[in-house]
Specification:
- The chain is built from three helices and 16 strands.
- By secondary structure, the protein is mainly beta.
- β14 and β15 form a beta hairpin.
- The chain is elongated.
């Protein structure tokens, strides 16, 4: 009888021990939630690190066939994207999406006023936490010619010098102040040449119109790496330089862009601050 009791106690102890281990294992179990293709793409910045032709041969990233797809790409969780070249100059911005199966990525490049420059669909070949590779077909009429553009996860931070902010909206001149902080009328000769609607596009070009929607100047623009200066190079219809203007940026955020002009470089004590405000005004055609 004593032996039977001992066997019963031993069996119960084993069962209790097994139950305890099982519970312990359940408590320690880690559930990893699988990311959607969109979440994977927006989880990291991407750097173009290679390209291959249809025969699998490497193509130099500077080659004209692929150069337009090379850079640092930032696909953000809010559905917006920004792509910079490898020297951190803004190249395009707009909206993006990936189909639920992770087979196609779509981008719509946008002008500052929200109008579409182009829409591009590409076939996704690889999309994981470390690699994003897609296929481009430059000529839709000849799908046998294609290039595979390879991107690798990178820790490269998105440039924060204001390029994206300046290119994300049209700007209207809404005020001007002199060196003493006094308001200056926008039709005053000292500031009138800087008044209008401005469109700084992500491809590095700009157009400025008067408040009467008449084109006043066009050309190329850039912001210094430290975000302190904006440069305009005015171009005529033949591509000849008409002026170069460098101004100090005083304020640049999502709603306000203010820069300082010094009409006479030999007399920096005289200056004017030109104030621009975000506006929804469409670019005149």
């Amino acid at each position: 009888m004593n032996t039977l009791k001992k066997l019963c106690y031993l069996s119960a102890a084993v069962l209790l021990s097994a139950s305890f281990v099982s519970c312990s294992n359940d408590d320690a179990e880690i559930v990893v939630e699988q990311q959607t293709p969109s979440q994977v793409l927006s989880s990291t910045p991407w750097e173009t690190t290679g390209a291959k032709d249809k025969n699998g041969n490497n193509v130099a990233l500077a080659d004209a066939s692929v150069a337009g797809y090379v850079g640092f790409a930032y696909f953000k969780a809010d559905g917006k994207f920004a792509i910079y070249n490898l020297t951190d100059v803004l190249r395009s911005r707009g909206t993006w999406s990936v189909d639920p199966q992770g087979k196609t990525r779509t981008i719509a490049a946008l002008n500052p006023d929200g109008s579409t420059i182009f829409t591009r669909d590409v076939e996704i070949l690889v999309l994981n936490k470390n690699e994003f590779t897609y296929r481009i077909r430059p000529n839709a009429a000849d799908p046998s010619v294609y290039y595979d553009i390879i991107h690798t996860k990178t820790s490269h931070a998105e440039p924060s010098n204001g390029q994206l902010t300046l290119a994300s909206t049209p700007w209207e001149t809404t005020g001007a102040k002199d060196k003493s902080g006094n308001n200056v009328a926008l039709n005053d000769a000292s500031v009138a040449g800087y008044v209008g609607y401005s469109y700084f596009k992500a491809n590095g070009t700009f157009k400025i119109f008067g408040l009467n929607n008449v084109l006043r100047s066009q050309g190329t623009w850039s912001i210094s790496p430290d975000g302190k200066k904006r440069t305009l190079v005015g171009l005529d219809n033949n591509g000849n330089v008409t002026f170069t203007r460098v101004v100090d940026i005083l304020l640049l955020n999502e709603t306000t862009f203010t820069y300082r002009i010094t009409p006479d470089a030999t007399n920096p004590a005289v200056f004017y601050d030109i104030i621009h405000t975000k506006v929804s005004h469409n670019e005149p055609q």
